[in-house]
Amino acid sequence: MRLYEHEGKALASAEGIPVPRSRLVASPSDAEEAARELGGDVVLKAQVLAGGRGKAGGVLAAATAGEAGEMARRLLGGIIRGLPVRAVLVEERAEIAHELYVGVAIDEAEKRTVVAAGPGGVDVEDAAALGAQFARRTVDPFVGLPPFRARELASGLSRGRAMAHVAGVIGKLYALYRRYDATMAEINPLAVTPGGEVLALDVRCELDDDALSRQEGRLRAFAIPVRLDDGREPTELERRAAEIDRSDHRGVAGRVVEFGGDIALLIGGGGASLTVFDAILRHGGRPANYCEVGGNPTVRKVQALTRLLVSKPGVRSLAVIMNVVSNTRVDLVARGLIKGLLDAGVDPRVPSGCFPIVVRLAGSWEDDGYGILDQCGVRWLDRTHTMDEAARAIVELTRSRE
Ligand code: GDP
Ligand code: MN
Fold first, then answer.
1. Integer Cα distance of 78 and 69 in angstroms
2. What pTM was computed for the model?
3. How confident is the model over 47-93, as pLDDT tens digits?
4. Which residue out of 5, 6, 22, 43 has the highest number of ligand 1 atoms within 8 Å of its CB and is therefore the one to mutate?
5. Which ligand 1 atom is nearest residue 96's CA?
6. Ligand 1 closest atom vs CA 20
């Protein structure tokens, strides 16, 4: 989950990293008042879940409170980097002698956390951690980041008092990264003031989605809600799907995203689900949702999920398509599917049903699974049919009922 700048700054500040005084506002009049409180000379920053705001016109300076109101009017309701601006951070303007970059992230190749530091500003984001001027250190998880390592990283960037401050910030940023199960935490720019103080002017954090359940309470203390990456709140259907997933640790029935189409999808996890989703689109179908199923879910889990997805208003068909998966029992999926359809009041039998269903499953216990589907009159495709054929079949069947 990506955090807004103001949220990242709240966490950074709690960690002891110096940040400018600021106010979060949602209207020009509040911006004006905030600017007055902060002394008039301020920077206004669009709060969107994207970087590169400076270059896109999302960071504006104002010299007076009146000007701040004017700038807020320009930002609020506008679009920055393709995202609507609903809030603006009004911040006292810092004096900058030079700008640094410090970041903590996962190095996928090393399979370890890496800490990087280098020159900062709006031009480094693309080249971050790649440029020759960047110092990088991977961190041994059992050792952590000792202060001497932080000073080593800082020593190439600054001297004297500022060096000690920068090293302190690096240590605290690493602590933040660990405390909140972040996959990325970055300060760019970390401003060094003419007086040799440091100030985090921009903080970006991404938290591990799989750790959110244990971070939820901690984030609530900062009024940070758990939400999706595009910044919207989950829909009712998405919330209920997440509850179903949480209700039982066995199997994945998750990553549900709601769309506006009419074909409900229960599709095998990972690359297969993405492939199926793309295939449905390519054949001209309109998915009602995205939902991964796998890891041998229980009958009850598949049942609850089927019921939820099929009951959605406007849904006119269902596709259950998986690759050949040996870790998911076809018979359990088949049982859950039938029960869920019956719960939702859908007659699964093809001849009488005006609700098209395409099932393409293969894997463990498939013969038992096919037997169950036969008993209930659900037509199925085995591994001799490709996932693409199944995707085309559901699109055509759905269309033929229009
Ligand atoms: P980003 O473009 O989305 O990364 O937004 P930033 O928050 O990093 O802001 C972009 C640039 O605006 C920074 O690199 C700074 O040069 C400038 N900036 C941001 N805050 C201040 C400030 O308080 N004072 C001054 N002088 N410049 C600032
Ligand atoms: Mn930045």
1. 15
2. 0.73
3. 999 989 999 999 999 999 999 999 999 999 899 998 999 999 999 99
4. 43
5. 26
6. 23
